[in-house]
Amino acid sequence: MIYIFNTLIVPCNFGSENEFTVRLKKVSREQVVELLKKNEFTSAVGHQSTAEVLTAILGIQIPMNRIAVKMNVGDVGIHFFLKQRLQEGAVLDKEELEKIEYDLILSEVS
């Protein structure tokens, strides 16, 4: 399964396994678009403004979907990782988010 997150946290399902290895890799917008166009994915993006920014960046509809995810072996995550820490409790709108630098990180659970 492929998940899209608005955090760099990799939520692994420790009810199914005792140990995981997670590989993280910075990827380009183009690599993410190619992966998502070829595969089904589940959005776990919990904020509407972040979902809108990701939709604009990727050109693919990323719905807001505030769900809990537990990744298993073989799962992949795409993480929208802001390069600055926000103030506690801050919820930014789309225009504010677009001003912050970010990375796209791919996680693979094995």
What does this structure look like?
With 110 residues, the protein is of the alpha/beta class. It has a domain at 42-69 and 91-101. It has three helices and five strands. The chain has helices at 29-38, 48-58, 94-98; strands at 2-5, 22-27, 42-43, 76-82, 102-109. Strands 2-5-4-1-3 form a five-stranded mixed sheet, with helices on one face. The protein is globular. It starts with a strand and ends with a strand.
Mean pLDDT: 90
Q: How much is the radius of gyration in Å?
A: 14 Å
Relative strand content: 15-25%
Helix count equals: 3
> How do the strands line up in the largest sheet?
2-5-4-1-3
Number of DSSP strand runs:
5
Question: What sequence of helices (H) and strands (E) makes up the elements?
Answer: EEHEHEHE
Main sheet characteristics: 5 strands, mixed
What is the oligomeric state here?
Answer: single chain
- Spans of 5+ residues with little confidence (pLDDT < 50)? none
Helix content estimate: 10-25%
Based on secondary structure, the structural category is: alpha/beta
How far is the N terminus from the C terminus?
13 Å
* Tertiary shape: globular
Task: Record keyword descriptors for this entry.
110 residues; alpha/beta; five-stranded mixed beta sheet; 3 helices
